[in-house]
Amino acid sequence: MGEWLLANKEYFESLAALATAFALLFQLPAFLIGRYLADRNKRRDEANAYIRHMLDSDWKEEGRAVLKKLNQSQSFDPSVLTDVERDRLFKFMNEYEFLSLRIRHKQIDEAQVKRWMHLQTIHDWEVAAPLIMELQADRPSLFVEWTSLVKRWQAPT
To answer: Which positions ≥6 away from 106 have C-beta within 8 Å?
Structure first.
């Protein structure tokens, strides 16, 4: 038996190489799929946490109240607001900008956020749009992420 093994040494070396190649061939896709699923789950967990933050916050209602006040006065100049109102308004708008930025950089699952906050995000942007346009006249980079997200979500699919 030992002589036969020695005589067929190349056969066993080739078989070992093939076994190694097959092991790598099957493990690589499993590794890549596992990595993709881990990244996706992380983005979904981040989306869930952010959605809870958005739904459970008083700042959102405070910001909407300030926006409503601005819209009723037909003055879209934030300088007419008190310091507290201005802080509440910009915290509200910056939260949407930050959310939009995280979505664009794929740090958070867009599909999940869209399912939960699609109408709310678009409605709040539409209410804030006159103020955003006024602010962008002086600083075009303000709230561009939020604006871009809303335009993408409003586009027919």
So the answer is: 43
The alpha carbon of 12 is separated from its chain's Cα centroid by a whole number of angstroms, namely 52
Residue 56, token pair as written in the block: 């459970």
Q: Which pTM does this prediction carry?
A: 0.72
pLDDT of 16: 76
Residues of the chain with pLDDT > 90, as a percent, come to: 38
Q: In this model, does residue 60 exceed pLDDT 80?
A: yes
Residues 108, 85: Cα–Cα separation, whole Å = 29
Phi-psi region of 66 (alpha: psi -120 to 50; beta: other; left: phi over 0): alpha
Q: Which amino acid is at 138?
A: D
The C-alpha atoms of residue 40 and residue 22 are separated, in whole angstroms, by: 28
